[in-house]
Design goal:
Blueprint lengths: L1 E2 L4 H16 L12 E3 L3 H24 L5 H24 L2 E3 L3 E5 L5 E5 L3 E10 L4 E5 L2 E8 L3 E17 L2 E10 L4 H12 L1
Parallel strand pairs: 8-10
Antiparallel strand pairs: 1-5, 2-3, 3-4, 4-5, 6-9, 7-8, 9-10
């Protein structure tokens, strides 16, 4: 089942809810027993963290240059930027990939997800490469492959057999036999998939 890239307003809700949940220290819901969670997008998280933390002192420096009447608007803009950065981090941490005996759910944090039947995932292997775009998208030069990641770098290749029909949005569908995803610990992700296949 494909959850397409949500509209901007829905993404903003995902970011704000994720940030509130992290601040309140609420644990993510885990509905199934034996569920393995694998974090993803570590490169993007590192970059967003660096940019967000840099933005805080820069905001104070720029505030001293901005004319006094414009300072409240500048403060609101900077607050929105910093909260968005922390919201992205929270969404990525609270929406990991999950593997259970019945299904594999691949998340992009706030840009959609892909749920696969566990038996459909025949094998998994490491495959480090860059695929342009964000969210669930086609892979150039591979008509039966999709990538499911919030960034361009992927690290694991899933082989599906039989191919799974997917609605990729905007009236586009395909029979997919390969899915590329990002995982912080590719070996652990591959092990979890292999263990679930036994």
């Amino acid at each position: 089942m494909v959850t397409p890239k949500p509209p901007m307003s829905h993404r903003a809700r995902i970011l704000s809810r994720s940030l509130c949940a992290v601040i309140a220290r609420r644990t993510p819901p885990r509905s199934e027993r034996g569920l393995t969670a694998i974090r993803h997008s570590s490169e993007l998280r590192s970059m967003v963290m660096a940019l967000t933390l840099t933005e805080i002192p820069v905001a104070f420096l720029v505030s001293g240059i901005v004319p006094p009447p414009a300072r409240p608007f500048h403060a609101l803009l900077e607050l929105a930027l910093v909260l968005t950065g922390f919201g992205v981090l929270a969404a990525l941490v609270r929406h990991p990939h999950t593997v259970s005996s019945s299904r594999v759910v691949l998340h992009t944090g706030f840009m959609g997800s892909l749920e696969l039947s566990r038996p459909a995932v025949r094998s998994a292997s490491r495959s480090m490469r860059t695929i342009p775009g964000r969210g669930l998208r086609r892979v150039p030069a591979e008509p039966t492959a999709v990538a499911c990641s919030v960034g361009g770098t992927v690290s694991v290749r899933l082989h599906l057999d039989p191919p799974v029909p997917m609605d990729l949005g905007e009236g586009e569908s395909a029979d997919v036999d390969t899915v590329y995803v990002s995982a912080d610990t590719p070996e652990a992700f591959v092990r979890a998939l292999e263990a679930g296949a036994r």
